Amino acid sequence: MAEAVAASAAGEGTCAICLEETPLAALPCCDNATTTESTTRFCLECLRMNCEHGGGVARCPRCRAWISVEDEEVVAHDGTGRCSICMQEPRVLVARGRAPDGGSVAICDACWLGNQIALRYECQGCGGVQRIPHPMWRYQTDGPEAFGHTPWACHVRCGTYTRWRVIPEDVARVPHGDAPESWGVDIVRQIRARQGRERRRAALREAGERQRRERQARVARAARAVEPAAAVEPAVELHDAMAAEEEAGRCRVM
Ligand SMILES: [Zn+2]
Ligand SMILES: [Zn+2]
Ligand SMILES: [Zn+2]
Ligand SMILES: [Zn+2]
Q1: Which whole-number Å values give the CA distances from 211 to 140, 205, 206, 208, in the listed order?
Q2: Rounded to an integer, what distance in angstroms lies between the CA atom of residue 14 and that of residue 39?
Q3: Concatenated DSSP letters for 34-59?
Q4: Is the pLDDT of residue 253 over 70?
Q5: Looking at 24-163, which runs of residues are DSSP E strands?
Q6: What's the 162 CA to ligand 4 centre distance in angstroms?
Q7: Mean pLDDT of all residues in the chain?
Q8: Segment holding 30, helix H or strand E
Q9: What is the pLDDT of residue 219?
């Protein structure tokens, strides 16, 4: 019996995000857990997209452990350390790079997310709305309507540290799987909706790109049909004409 469960871990099935019948990814974090949701499985591509959305890492939509996708495999993300921006540690580090002075730079998931998704929050003190480059929603552990427990400086009216909550219009932009568990949102459904939007946008971009290339090709064909000199001459003439006009203008002023 146990063997049958293990065999289905990375077998074929329906991905809970894209709803396609596809090979499913084995999850390092919770495939062995005997949870009631263990029938919820995902394909590698959906998990990869979800990780890309979070700077390379994301929380497992099933158990919320940090994961990343490396070499066609879902792996547990264990890169923790000191963040070069907020200087806190240990933090889950998502982006690494080289500083101009050669030293290494590591950005924690909170700083990275906050930078990517600076949402608008309402101040509990003055009711003002401020954009904050930090995932303040994480501190709203009592629900999306409740103000968070960790303060941030209010530059609207208070001039001091106050509590915040995401404004309703921006709640949907909280990354999926990143909201406190108490929000009770259907993480899988949210990821699916977002990826559907992104796929549609990508398709539109591709179509636009294709049109642009076709237009360029038409222009190039048209240009080849005329003498090369003819394409250069008008620009020179225009320049001369402008210079002449300028000259004339100066003369008139004098
Ligand atoms: Zn999928
Ligand atoms: Zn998991
Ligand atoms: Zn940080
Ligand atoms: Zn305020």
Answers
A1: 45, 10, 9, 5
A2: 10
A3: --TTTT----HHHHHHHHHHTTT-EE
A4: no
A5: 58-59, 66-70, 73-76, 80-81, 91-98, 104-108, 119-123, 129-132, 152-153, 161-162
A6: 6
A7: 80
A8: none
A9: 85
| Nearest ligand by distance to the CA of 35 | 2
Distance in Å, CA 21 to ligand 2 centroid: 20
85 Cα: distance to centroid of ligand 3 (angstroms): 5
Chain segment 107-162, per-residue pLDDT in tens: 888 888 888 889 999 999 999 999 998 899 999 999 888 999 999 999 999 999 99
Ligand nearest to the CA of 44: 1
| Cα 212 to ligand 4 centroid, rounded to whole Å | 47
Residue 185 pLDDT: 63
Among the bound ligands, the one closest to the CA of 88: 3
- Ligand minimally distant from the alpha carbon of residue 42: 1
Q: What is the DSSP letter of 148?
A: P
CA quadruple 78, 82, 84, 88: dihedral sign: positive
User: What are the Cα distances from residue 187, in Å, to 2, 170, 219?
Assistant: 28, 16, 48
Q: Model confidence over 22-55: pLDDT tens digits?
A: 999 999 998 876 544 467 899 999 999 988 877 7
Residues with CB under 5 Å of ion ligand 1 are: 15, 17-18, 43, 46
CA of 56 to the centre of ligand 1 (A): 17
Q: 178, 113 in Cβ contact below 8 A? A: yes
CB of 14 closer than 8 Å to CB of 35: no
Give CA–CA dist 231/226, Å, rounded. Answer: 8
Q: Which ligand has the minimum distance to the alpha carbon of residue 134?
A: 3
Amino acid 165: pLDDT? 95
pLDDT at 69: 92
- Say which DSSP state 184 is in: -
